[in-house]
Amino acid sequence: MLDVYKSVYNFEGQPFRLSPDYHFSFGHPSYDDAKSYLKYAISEGEGIVAITGAPGTGKTTLIATLISELDQTQVNVGVVTNVQLDESSLLEMVVDAFSIQLNPAGNVSLMYEFKQFLKRQHEQNKRVILIVDEAQGLSMQSLEDLRLLSNMQHGTKLLLQIFLVGQEPLMDIITSPGLEQLHQRMIAAAQLKPLDYEETVDYIIHRLTCVGWKNNPAFTDEVCSLIHKFSGGVPRRINLICHRLFLHAGLENKEELVGGDALIVIVELHREGLLTSVARRALDEYVGGIKDMAVNN
Question: In DSSP terms, which residues pair with 219 in a beta bridge?
Fold first, then answer.
């Protein structure tokens, strides 16, 4: 795919990779709000923050962007991404996230080792932030255990901040009975939302501009409309459609993309089972509407 981008359009890279890449970070209202909440929490030095959003809305990219902008001499960040675990291994995951060197004799508890780590970071004037990705997969007990970890302090200074990142059910879990104390420790909560049409257009142009696009290939408003319609404004879905669209364009050496090109790609993705159920229904309605117009004409 990179060869098509380079050989046909002279791009400097792949603008629509499916894997998260903070170098392509695109600011839009809900993204900027979430980022501001995270920065606010860091400046406050306490509390728990929850960032939620549907799969593919940019949560991982947001976290990577935030980490890249932090002064690593003042902050120590650990990220736990595999949260499908039992309670006994949660602390092990946290210790591993910070690369804490354990006592080789093995006669000291993990909790003691973690407390000592937090104290050492405090003595070095370093903030410690734990980011838990896909946190909706945590059990209520694990969430309560995280709250207890966030209570650790030296004097009046809290030693650990926690950012919970996950899909929409996360907030339902946090606000459920039995987790009132966790809910009370929340300092902020934000939701990443899908892009509207104008934001989708800006997103596509932003990513293309990052790799040196100079309006070749050009694309019509209808292309953008179809991409938005069948991606639902979800960045990962936009990338999927655009990735295939530019492959199609490159193989055909096209200098302009029109609605028909986008529709060909969308139908191919449908045949391969790569569209969401919502997009499949929208495609059936869209094609049905075209057939009705043809019959009436």
Answer: 257
Structural domains present in the chain: 29-192 (3.40.50.300), 195-296 (1.10.8.60)
Range from 99-113, 125-139, 237-251 carrying the lowest mean pLDDT: 99-113
What DSSP assignment string belongs to 79-147?
Answer: EE------HHHHHHHHHHHTTPPPPTT--S-HHHHHHHHHHHHHHTT-EEEEEETTGGGS-HHHHHHHH
Question: If we measure between CA atoms, which residue out of 267, 262, 264, 259 comes closest to residue 283?
Answer: 267
Q: How far apart are CA 271 and CA 280, in angstroms?
A: 10
Peptide bond into 217 cis (omega under 30): yes
**Residue pair 251/4 in contact by the 8 Å Cβ criterion:** yes
Name the residue among 99, 186, 179 with its Cα closest to residue 141: 179
Contacts of 198-204 spanning 24+ positions with Cβ under 8 A: 199/28, 199/233, 200/224, 200/227, 200/228, 200/231, 200/233, 200/238, 201/228, 202/26, 202/28, 203/26, 203/28, 203/235, 203/238, 204/238, 204/242
CA angle in degrees (0–180, nearest 5) for 223-229-235: 90
Distance, in Å, from the CA atom of 168 to the CA atom of 149, rounded to the nearest integer, reads 24
Short-list 200, 265, 259, CA closest to 234: 200
Count the alpha carbons within 13 Å of 29 in the hemisphere toward its beta carbon: 7
pLDDT digits (tens, 9 = 90+) for 266-279: 999 999 999 999 89
In the numeric block, the tokens 């600011």 are attached to: 27
Q: Which two tokens stand for residue 167?
A: 């899909």
Using CA atoms of 201, 205, 206, 207 in order, give the dihedral in degrees to the nearest 10. Answer: 110
Higher-pLDDT residue of 297 and 11 is 11
CA atoms of 33 and 288, how far apart (whole Å): 39
**Cα distance between residue 260 and residue 262, in whole Å:** 5
